[in-house]
Amino acid sequence: MDFRDSDAPAGPRGADVLPQTAAAAVKVVVVGGFGVGKTTMVGAVSEIKPLTTEETMTRAGIGVDDTRGVTRKTTTTVAMDFGRISINDELVLYLFGTPGQERFWFLWRGLFEGALGAVVLLDTRRLEISFDVIGRLEERGVPFVVAVNSFPGAPEHPVEELREALDLPPAVPILVCDARRRDSSRDVLLTLMRYLYSQAATQEAM
């Protein structure tokens, strides 16, 4: 499967029109707990101006929303983030970032519909918030990769320790990323596409 190199310049390309050669569009969801970098990733990698539904956090969320580790965060996604990236001249990914606060998780069901795969963003300072996220994907049978977002001061763990803590099978890719960087976020999506491709090839061979 032909993928472009990941050394494209940072930021949106500004090309709002799909290439005429585009033959396939794939829906990908970017999921994770509150404040793990979903909006940041979609915005960093999208070649169009991303659609966001961020709202200012209010006192109404006190005692309801878990803000441990992200106490300085002042906005939150209340519906979804949306972006688009062309992986090559024929394959286009539509990215849907889910809201992270648990009170908005009822929206996930609709966002998962039609998704071919998912990226689970992880914050090692708050590893426990990823358990339910991964469980929901496994229940729906959505293939996923795990991307450990690099936060300053966050503990670093070997991949196999994370795999064991998250109870993930050996085939599920786990990689470290910086969601702020377009090239790093794009590498995560390329890893997901290769994983989906390998899974499809394995199933065809059975």
Automatic annotation (TrEMBL):
Pfam family, one: ATP_bind_1
InterPro entries: Gliding_Motility_GTPase (IPR052705), Gpn (IPR004130), P-loop_NTPase (IPR027417)
Alphabetically ordered keywords of this record: GTP-binding, Hydrolase, Nucleotide-binding
Keyword Plastid: no
Family: Belongs to the GPN-loop GTPase family.
The protein, known as: ATP/GTP-binding protein
Species in which this protein is naturally found: Streptomyces goshikiensis
